[in-house]
């Protein structure tokens, strides 16, 4: 038997759908009704839900924002939209980004039962997991046609080299036979994971097979993002790059209105799910910030490439936004050898001590000959040490740690009177790098912990406000909704909305024990505007009634 959640501000619509489903012969034993996004998220924490029926305008917002919140908590639940005729264009667009289908209001009994029955019967089928395949809205073309080598070459040049002159862009557009109008842009870098793909789930070894998968990925991306006039092309190694065009409304993105970034989050999620569904292959996706004008393409490309590198630290995540991690990625103030910069880049993105030791051994082995051949054996190791020491201090600034870390000062490790030969220098450098790498790792972990503590502070401060939701928390934290959810989950071991719901209910129980407030008053005091919803949650959670103590 299945459980269905209906989300609509109109109580009459909810009750009508509930009655139709309960009285039908479908295998449905529970139908919950919610009248806001927050109520819906509460229900999703309490019980297993097999399907959502979602009004496209619930909470007075758009479906992309709402689906983004729901998917951050329960990404695999199929969603059937409810939309009136005026909103069908939005419903159609939303189908590519997570909804399975839509029904036109007013709801017709026969059509409702047909749609629900079809999705419930196929809920365990891969074809129903994502993207609305039953309506033939997504048909991958699996062809190499249309992706010419010249087009690919020019597009790669455009994102990898800074272009500022209008003549350059005119030349590019003439060569590739298309125009990028924007006026706002974002870049998505997708790294295809060759280690396990296809029906057999085997590693893709042959270059021919890898190229076929890259071409297929390009087709899937462009079909999925047709509404955004996306331009996808394959890049070096396992990368596929997408230029996303956004209209004038996208100025909200570039001004840091992070509550409006749900669309980008859903785009990333849709791409990951569709590649996984049709190619049976995982991906790592990096998404740049949004910028105005074509001149910023190279900058956005660097951002998106950097974002994918954070997979090394957050192995349970697949989608990374540049803005979520840019603070940790500050370059050291002192410039030195490229190898040291690469070492720092890896160290900042790993939480594995063995990895730190391995990377350190590789770095030391590569620069050993420089130390041996240098007239001053301390010169290069000391310079490297100062660069790394600067990085340690930079990461410390995230935690507002101003002390100079004398135990890691290069002169403490490489004093001329104490380190007298090459082997001693190499040994000191190795130990210094390992200790410094562990310090960087620990400080980044502390920074992540501090961010979660800030989230907890916001929750404890605003739990009594009915409008509190994940996106408001993310906006105050200046993070994306997806990263806020994943960071909280990784540190606390539970979804952020589950924590909010349980915190509110625990506060309600305490309030009931020490006051004479009515159930309605208690509900309002802990952030619930709907007394019936609050009473139901309280009963499910405590197996008790609000008034019984």
Automatic annotation (TrEMBL):
CDD domains: REC. Residues 453-549 form the HTH araC/xylS-type domain. Keywords: Phosphoprotein. The modification 4-aspartylphosphate is found at residue 55. Residues 3-120 form the Response regulatory domain. It holds the Pfam family GGDEF_2. The keyword Phosphoprotein applies. This is Response regulator. PROSITE patterns: HTH_ARAC_FAMILY_2, RESPONSE_REGULATORY.
């Amino acid at each position: 038997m299945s459980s269905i959640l209906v989300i609509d501000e109109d109580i009459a619509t909810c009750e009508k759908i509930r009655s139709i489903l309960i009285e039908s012969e479908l295998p449905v034993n529970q139908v919950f009704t919610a009248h806001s996004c927050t109520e819906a998220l509460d229900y999703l924490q309490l019980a297993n839900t097999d399907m959502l029926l979602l009004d496209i305008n619930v909470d007075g917002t758009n479906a992309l924002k709402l689906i983004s919140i729901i998917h951050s908590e329960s990404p695999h639940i199929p969603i059937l939209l409810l939309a009136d005729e005026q909103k069908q264009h939005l419903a159609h667009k939303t189908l590519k980004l997570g909804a399975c289908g839509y029904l036109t209001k007013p709801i017709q009994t026969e059509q409702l039962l047909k749609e629900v029955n079809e999705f419930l019967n196929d809920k365990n089928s891969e074809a129903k997991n994502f993207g609305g395949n039953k309506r033939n809205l997504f048909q991958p073309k699996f062809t190499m046609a249309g992706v010419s080598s010249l087009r690919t070459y020019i597009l790669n040049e455009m994102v990898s080299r800074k272009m500022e002159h209008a003549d350059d862009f005119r030349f590019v557009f003439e060569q590739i036979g298309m125009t990028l109008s924007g006026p706002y842009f974002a870049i998505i870098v997708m790294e295809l994971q060759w280690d396990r793909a296809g029906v057999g789930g085997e590693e893709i070894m042959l270059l021919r097979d890898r190229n076929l998968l890259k071409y297929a990925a390009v087709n899937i991306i462009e079909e999925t993002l047709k509404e955004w006039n996306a331009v996808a092309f394959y890049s070096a190694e396992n990368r596929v790059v997408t230029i996303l065009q956004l209209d004038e409304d996208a100025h909200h993105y570039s001004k840091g209105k992070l509550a409006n970034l749900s669309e980008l989050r859903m785009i990333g999620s849709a791409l990951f799910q569709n590649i996984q569904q049709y190619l049976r292959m995982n991906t790592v996706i990096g998404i740049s910030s949004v910028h105005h004008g074509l001149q910023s393409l190279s900058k956005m490309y660097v951002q998106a490439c950097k974002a994918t590198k954070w997979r090394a630290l957050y192995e349970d995540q697949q989608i990374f936004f540049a803005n979520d991690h840019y603070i940790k990625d500050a370059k050291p103030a002192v410039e030195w050898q490229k190898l040291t910069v690469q070492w720092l880049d890896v160290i900042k993105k790993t939480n594995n001590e063995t990895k730190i030791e391995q990377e350190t051994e590789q770095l030391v082995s590569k620069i050993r000959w420089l130390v041996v051949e240098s007239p001053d054996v301390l010169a290069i190791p000391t310079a490297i040490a100062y660069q790394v020491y600067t990085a340690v201090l930079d990461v410390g600034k995230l935690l507002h740690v101003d002390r100079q870390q004398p135990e890691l000062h290069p002169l403490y490790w490489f004093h001329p009177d104490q380190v007298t030969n090459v082997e001693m220098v190499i040994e000191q450098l190795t130990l210094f790098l390992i200790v410094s790498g562990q310090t960087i790792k620990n400080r980044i972990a502390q920074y992540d912990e501090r961010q979660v503590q800030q989230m907890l502070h916001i929750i404890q401060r605003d739990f009594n406000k009915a409008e509190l939701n994940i996106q408001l928390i993310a906006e105050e934290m200046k993070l994306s909704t997806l990263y806020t959810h994943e960071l909280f989950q990784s540190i606390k071991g539970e979804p952020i909305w589950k924590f909010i719901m349980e915190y509110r209910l625990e506060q309600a129980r305490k309030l009931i024990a020490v006051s004479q407030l009515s159930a309605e008053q208690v509900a309002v005091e802990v952030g619930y505007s709907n007394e019936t919803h609050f009473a139901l949650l309280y009963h499910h959670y405590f197996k008790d009634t609000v008034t019984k103590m």
